[in-house]
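Hi there,

I know you've been waiting on this one. I reran it after we fixed the sequence typo, so this is the corrected version. Both the input and the resulting structure follow.
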Amino acid sequence: MSDRTTNRPERAEPAGGGPQLHRLLPIASPDFWRLWFVGLIMFIVRWLEMLAMAVFVYEETRSPFIVATLTMLRLLPMALFGAFMGEIADRIERRTVLIGVVVCLMATSGTLALLAHFQALAVWHLTVATFVNGTTWATDNPVRRIMIGEVVERDRIGVAMSIDIGTNNASRLLGPAIGGVLFATVGLEGIFALSVASYAVATVTAFGLRYRNVVRVGDGGKVLRRIAEGLAIVRRDRQLLGALSITVIFNVFGWPFTSMIPVIGHDDLLLTPTGVGLLASMDGLGAFVGAVAIAWRARPHHYARLYIGGTACYLVLLCLFALTPVPLLAGGALLLTGLVSAGFTIMQSTLIYILAPIEIRSRVFGVLSVCIGSGPIGFLHLGLLANAIGASAATATIGVEGLIVLALTRNIWRPVWRSAMA
């Protein structure tokens, strides 16, 4: 099999303060747009199902802790399997794995649709499905995102990641909004049926990929040793260590608050399922606008500061959301939260791709998945707090905790802040 990345030209980005024309032109690679579309389907369905599941589970149990636990299970496989997937990704044909992932997601949604149709759906079914979907999600960084980096030119990686992650952010607008309306009209059965149809389209698109990677043949018994080597390299590289530490802080103290949006919307803001969906979509709207702005204006020397500054602002704004009693103001706070989160979400993958040596890039992306997988700690912490002191107070508390930890770890992430990613 041929490696399409071997002779990829590497051009320096033109200097200048304003938008450069080549940055705004569409990326020419057909495989990039196929990968983008598959990601679009996966993102929209993910957010649609997450919102609908959260509303259903809360209505069934009235437990913020169980709602947080459900979201936690979607991240847990990253912590358990992320490093292994990063290593295994070098030993597999990524196109085949991507097709398998989409088919697995389609089968899971189809099973849930049948259970809902026969009125046999229970919370434990959603719990199992969430863990299975989380396992497939853990492949995204070492498989699909690596493929994106390899099918575009090096000087377009930042733009490509902005487009792809901007799509993810846009799906955070469309998914919850559609999910809230569908939940109120056709119920979970209709939502999962739509998921199956969407995944079928994504599967056909994935079959059209021309990308093939060189499969590295090696001794399977050395997997653990190679994972350990990748972790050792990360520990020695101050910039990689700093970048990954920000990922841990965001996923432990920032990201978990999204699981409380349906609870706060339902209990504190007294919204209907449709209103909860619209409220949750404000985060996605802000994130989409932020992604467009970054793709238009950001330059490599901005990347690290967008990443760290976006995390700090996110922690401040989630506190404001939690303490706002008026739905309109809460929606505005979520809009701003999404806007600043774009800096983190886009630059997380971009910085790791740029900073990681090419020969261990898949393994470092596996370590990144493990760091993202630290999120269950935050979800568990938030869920227990919410049961004890209420969703709003608990959400504000973890935001403050995150800001304190961010300040205390300044010496770890400072090398990233000072870097000029030229």
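Quick highlight: The chain has one domain: 28-214+229-418.

Best,
R. S.
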